[in-house]
Specification:
It is a single chain. The chain is α/β, with parallel strands linked by helices. The chain has seven helices and eleven strands. Helix 2 links the parallel strand 4 and strand 5. It is globular, with a radius of gyration of 18 Å. It starts with a strand and ends in an 8-residue tail after the last helix. Bound molecules: cytidine-5'-monophosphate.
């Protein structure tokens, strides 16, 4: 049984202000001295259980910093088959993996957003350990902490939504290759892989994660991500003397 990572990175990052066609796509914005996407790829390439990491780029991507990324090692593979939506990019990436690896039906694929740079090896290993060999797969997620409001027109509260049992989905999301491809072909409109599996009647496992595994969506998220990454570097490793 093998584990692979698949990182869709074919978005334009329009909510970061990159829709004009002039700005650098979100995944390449500078963060703690590296392109944003470097951080997630670095964590995945450093996870011993992961045999190979596939990154899905838009076919016309000219900003991929190939030389800088080559330093992450031979386990990193580039697929230039991004689609119009995240789900299409993941679907194309799953097919591209078969072209490179051959049949990997029962092997595991961990899909991770390029825009979540604060992933670390421990989070990836926890997901793999807790999902085990459960065919429904699983995902990192956090229980909702805030009170939720349903917005009426004009920015006013229509009602308060009970938060009991609600979790925020993160990535990586981990599924068997064939099941995930079947699910995305059956439900191509989804915004995450777990939703596609749910549409097949499967119930992926929620694996409690860390709010630090944030998705960089708006410009201010970059500052928070930078703070998280730099504070990790600043903390010296624990010694045997405690
Ligand atoms: O835009 P958002 O932050 O939701 O995108 C999540 C992930 O999906 C990002 O890594 C982005 O690059 C990727 N994506 C993609 N293909 C698209 C749209 C988004 O690979 N067409």
């Amino acid at each position: 049984m093998s584990y692979y990572a698949l990182v869709p990175a074919a978005g334009s990052g329009s909510r970061m202000g990159a829709s004009s066609g002039r700005a650098l796509p979100k995944q390449y914005l500078p963060l703690a001295g590296k392109p944003l996407i470097w951080h997630a790829l670095s964590a995945l390439c450093a996870t011993p259980a992961i045999a190979a990491v596939f990154v899905v780029l838009a076919p016309d991507d000219v900003a991929w910093p190939g030389e800088e990324m080559a330093a992450l090692g031979e386990r990193l593979h580039v697929l230039r088959c991004g689609g119009e939506t995240r789900a299409e990019s993941v679907t194309n990436g799953l097919r591209g993996m078969v072209s490179e690896l051959g049949m990997i039906d029962d092997d595991w694929v961990l899909v991770h957003d390029a825009a979540r740079p604060c992933l670390d090896v421990a989070m990836v290993e926890r997901l793999i350990a807790e999902v085990g060999d459960d065919d429904a797969g699983g995902l990192l997620a956090v229980p909702v902490a805030d009170t939720l409001k349903l917005c009426e027109e004009h920015g006013r509260v229509r009602q308060t939504v009970p938060r009991d049992g609600l979790w925020q989905a993160q990535t990586p999301q981990m599924f068997r290759h064939r099941l995930l491809l079947d699910a995305l072909e059956f439900a191509p409109q989804v915004t995450d892989e777990a939703s596609a599996m749910e549409s097949l009647g499967l119930m992926p496992k929620l694996v409690a994660a860390d709010i630090g595994n944030l998705k960089v969506t708006y410009p201010q998220d970059l500052k928070l991500a930078e703070w998280i990454l730099r504070s990790r570097q600043a903390v010296p490793p624990a010694t045997a003397h405690g």
